[in-house]
Amino acid sequence: MPEVKCSVSNCEYWGQGNNCVAPAIMVEIDRHANATYNEEFANIGVETSHQDMATSSADTCCHTFKPRR
């Protein structure tokens, strides 16, 4: 898996050195930002066959985020 950097330290998957330690990463475009995915999607799979286009990173959002408890 490639190195994924993240500075959101209150995420369950945030690791030392601003590394994401999630087993999988789910990124969507902002148009789908309100989509509801089971937070355990990395283990059970999510339908991701659709394809969208973003014009910049600002048009994207990370659905992997899970608040740290």
Plain-language structure description:
The protein is mainly beta. The protein contains 1 helix and 4 strands, in the order βββαβ. The model has no long low-confidence stretch (mean pLDDT 78).
Features:
two-stranded antiparallel sheet; 4 strands; mainly beta; 1 helix; 69 residues; globular; 6% helix
Strand count, sense and barrel status of the largest sheet are: 2 strands, antiparallel
Low-confidence stretches: none
Order of helices and strands: EEEHE
Task: Give the radius of gyration.
Answer: 12 Å
On the 0 to 100 scale, the average pLDDT is 78
Q: How much of the polypeptide forms β-strand, as a percent range?
A: 5-15%
Helix content range: under 10%
Secondary-structure map:
Layout: E1 14-15, E2 19-20, E3 27-29, H1 41-44, E4 60-62
Antiparallel strand pairs: 1-2, 3-4
Summarize the structure.
This protein is mainly β and 69 residues long. 6% of the residues lie in helices and 14% in strands.
